[in-house]
Amino acid sequence: DQQVKQNSPSLSVQEGRISILNCDYTNSMFDYFLWYKKYPAEGPTFLISISSIKDKNEDGRFTVFLNKSAKHLSLHIVPSQPGDSAVYFCAASHSGTYKYIFGTGTRLKVLA
Amino acid sequence: DVKVTQSSRYLVKRTGEKVFLECVQDMDHENMFWYRQDPGLGLRLIYFSYDVKMKEKGDIPEGYSVSREKKERFSLILESASTNQTSMYLCASSSQLGRQFFGPGTRLTVL
Lengths: 112, 111
Known about the structure:
- The complex is a heterodimer of chains A (112) and B (111).
- Chain A is mainly beta and 112 residues long.
- In chain A, 0% of the residues lie in helices and 54% in strands.
- In chain A, strands 2, 4, 5, 9, 10 and 11 form a 6-stranded mixed β-sheet that branches.
- The termini of chain B are far apart.
- At the A-B interface, β4 and β5 of A face β5, β9 and β10 of B.
């Protein structure tokens, strides 16, 4: 049972436009969410996080939105740059556990 | 600069061999994790450890064991490697309830 789902395996966006990556979860106990970026042959690197007490968190070009009622979060990248081309994973956790559940990833390609 | 290192970037082993993958972190983190990444399946947790000599099974522990004798080091052991264990293995560490820092990964091929 996939508790964290990224239903789009890939996404292509023109440079300078907005990239929107989506993530859905099923476990209502999740209260902390993260996005990681992964380049080929490298480990994932942390991008941005959000706690369930917020519905938005922003860091430069990256904004994460959380809709708790829909159990949905999204990552917006504005403006998109060719260097943003990577696989993006969302991950979820709940208080009292050290474990994160990862989605299957979305491969973003930003076209110059 | 925080760092998680893994003993090998690429490894080729034969079916039935015993394989050791080692991970070292320099951040004094309590928690360490082993994942495998496969196309279309994302990152799946094999084992994690929240303290020295403590370990818990993740979602796919079958065929694997782990060892954590020192806080900074977490080893993944494949007792008898099989071809379905060909994968990218990722180690991570975190402080209590913190975000995880990942190593560069080990691409293991079992022939």
